[in-house]
Design a protein that fits this description.
about 130 residues, alpha+beta, Murine Class I Major Histocompatibility Complex, H2-DB, Chain A, domain 1, five-stranded antiparallel β-sheet
Length: about 130
């Protein structure tokens, strides 16, 4: 499966993540958010990492709570128009100091990044961003 996302769209999304309430209101060195897309809804959960501290977080912009979800739905439709598949999960990871970020997609397995009470400690470690030192 192959598709191209315009750089401007990626930069816009990363900028929106920086505007979310939990990201703005907390100290963090890395963050991750998992978005799940269902029929007519978008949900998310994630973590802010600061050394050994891990804080649960959600990605919502205070004055525009549905804006980020709406932009991600637009991205989902863009990718669908190019490759004929809709992703069911999106993983966003960012490093605060450099603002480097990664976005990954899951098209088939709804449990790949699902955060549940049974796996939340495992997932917070598994989802912690690792950026190669350059």
């Amino acid at each position: 499966m192959s598709f191209r996302i315009p750089d401007e769209k990626l930069i816009e999304l990363a900028s929106l993540f920086l505007e979310t309430k939990d990201v703005k209101d907390n100290d963090w060195t890395e963050c991750c958010f998992v978005f799940e897309f269902g029929e007519g809804h978008v949900s998310n959960s994630g973590y802010l990492y600061d050394g050994d501290e891990v804080t649960p977080a959600i990605a919502s912009i205070e004055c525009y709570p549905v804006l980020l979800g709406y932009k991600l739905l637009e991205l989902r439709e863009l990718i669908y128009s190019e490759c004929g598949h809709k992703f069911i999960q999106l993983l966003f990871q960012m490093e605060n100091k450099t603002k480097r970020f990664k976005i990954d997609f899951e098209f088939d397995d709804p449990k790949r990044w699902a955060i549940t009470p049974c796996n939340m400690f495992e997932m917070r470690e598994r989802l912690k961003p690792v950026f190669d030192k350059e």
